[in-house]
Design brief:
The protein is an alpha+beta fold. It has a domain of 73 residues. Helices cover 47% and strands 13% of the residues. It contains four helices and three strands; from the N terminus they run αααβαββ. A three-stranded antiparallel β-sheet has the order 1-3-2, with helices on one face. The longest helix has 40 residues. The radius of gyration is 40 Å and the shape is elongated. The N and C termini lie far apart (127 Å).
Length: 163
């Protein structure tokens, strides 16, 4: 008989009082966290959808277009690229400085756009800005430097004569 009361005392020590309340509060916290997470996910989805509608409302609508199959092969947009501006090396005269600027422009265009565009003879909107580059005179000579600004273009297509 002494064993029964000891067993009850031992069991009473290991079972915490109010464990059902602690367990239910943990579950309510867990459920509360899940509800909050779902709330924010739904809110983000609503905002995303509103942004989508706003973008769709503001974009240009195209109802029809004209297909251009008979385009000219030498179309300006296909043939020419954006302007490039380069400063050349100095020369003893303005003409030599312009030649140096042409070489520098051709090298820059070749590197960035390829060999098809590097010929200055095919370029459009060519502008030179030349100025004196030396402070004083060296053996009676002044040096000049030029900056060239030009739109590189491919050569126009030429049909070969058929024999």
């Amino acid at each position: 008989m002494k064993r029964v009361p000891i067993l009850i005392v031992v069991l009473a020590l290991f079972v915490p009082v109010g464990s059902a309340q602690a367990q239910s509060s943990d579950e309510s916290l867990w459920a509360n966290k899940i509800i909050r997470k779902q709330h924010w996910q739904e809110r983000r989805a609503r905002l995303r959808y509103q942004r989508y509608l706003e973008r769709r409302r503001n974009h240009a609508r195209v109802y029809s277009y004209v297909r251009r199959d008979d385009r000219d092969e030498d179309d300006y947009r296909d043939r020419c690229r954006d302007k490039r501006r380069v400063v050349g090396d100095q020369g003893l005269s303005v003409a030599l400085a312009q030649g140096q600027a042409d070489k520098s422009w051709a090298a820059d265009v070749r590197f960035h756009l390829g060999e098809r565009y590097m010929d200055i003879a095919n370029a459009e909107e060519i502008k030179y800005e030349c100025s004196r580059s030396s402070v004083g005179e060296t053996l009676g000579q002044t040096f000049h430097r030029c900056q060239i600004s030009a739109r590189p273009c491919k050569a126009r297509k030429v049909e070969a004569n058929k024999r």
